[in-house]
Amino acid sequence: MEDLKKRLSNLLAVKSIVTVILTAVFADLSMAGRVTTDQFLTVFTVVIAFYFGTQAEKRSAGEAEAVAGSGTDQAGGEAA
After folding, report:
1. What does the alpha-carbon distance between residue 14 and residue 24 come to, in Å, rounded to a whole number?
2. Contact 57, 63 (CB under 8 A)
3. Disulfide check for 29: which of 22, 34, 53, 54 has CB 3.0–4.6 Å away?
4. What is the pTM of this model?
5. Which residues face 78 on adjacent strands?
6. Burial level of 49, CB count in 10 A (0-12/13-18/19+)?
7. Would you say 26 and 35 are in contact if contact means Cβ atoms under 8 Å apart?
C-alpha cells in the first residue's frame, strides 16, 4: 500500500504532469489531422525518452548513494 502511495505521488511530479498533458495534446492534434504522424512520432519519442531517461538517472543516483553510504568500497572491503 505504501508503494502505491509513493507511485501516485510521483505521478504528481511536474515532469510527469507535463508528459501526460503533452501526450494528450499531441494525440488530440494528431486525431484532428493537424499534426502528421511523423511529427507526432518525433515529439512523442523525444518526450518519452527524456522522461524515462531521467527516471533511470534518478534510480542510478539513488543506487550510487546507497553504495556510497554502505561503508564499504566497491571491492566489498571496509571503506577508508
Report:
1. 15
2. no
3. 34
4. 0.47
5. 72
6. exposed
7. yes
**pLDDT by residue (tens digit) across 10-62?**
777 777 788 788 888 888 888 898 988 888 888 888 878 887 787 777 777 77
At 79, give phi and psi (nearest 5°). -75, 150
Separation of alpha carbons 17 and 2, rounded Å: 21
Q: Which residues pair with 72 in a beta bridge?
A: 78
Which CA distances in Å does 13 have to 7, 38, 58?
10, 29, 13
CA angle 65, 15, 60 (to 5 degrees): 20
Q: Which amino acid is at 43?
A: V
For residues 72 and 79, the answer to whether their CB atoms sit within 8 Å is yes
Cα 78 from Cα 80, distance rounded (Å): 6
Contacts of 11 (CB under 8 A, 6+ apart): 17
